[in-house]
Amino acid sequence: MIWFSIFETSNIMLKSKYSKYKFEAGTDEAGRGCLAGPVVAAAVILPSDFKHDLLNDSKQLSEKKRQLLKPIIEKEALSFSVSFVYQQKIDEINILNASILAMHFSIEKLKIQPDFIIVDGNRFKKHQNIPHKTIVRGDSKYLSIAAASVLAKTYRDDYMEKLHLDYLAYNWKNNKGYPTKEHRQAIRDFGVTEHHRKSFKLLPEQLKLEL
To answer: Exposure of 186 by Cβ count < 10 A (0-12 exposed, 13-18 middle, 19+ buried)?
Structure first.
């Protein structure tokens, strides 16, 4: 019989750094596919000797583990920051540009200016002439990107849970604004809110929906 411990998401395969620069920042976003709420990005610079057995891509972690990691990352990081880009801006410049903008904001807010940036995914725009590297599934390969993914996810989830209290019908406490069947039914029943992304296809029958 094989037993799985709480360390089944071990970071044994996650690397500390991509480059040889002293201050390498990892950045990632959360909420890109949501119908409502902001896209949230984080940037993190970790010490070169940082390790934690639970740290991994936030999507592979339970909510309990993400919340456990959040204060550890914030305490141990050389520098971290989190930035929100809200639905109005998303509708204005599109979700890809809004995601990159949120990452840029996070990098700008770091107390230590990074020498190099590693980015989850395959799309990014140069920021302040700092060299960078986009890495597909970087949040499951590098510790700093994984840490950024945890912070972005936890901060966004906390925001949507607070928003839920004023919009109970949409159940954002549980679906966090993602396009669940329940969320879309609430849009049919109650319409859209100021927090919905009007540029998104909120319902399959979008052409019939009056926004």
So the answer is: buried
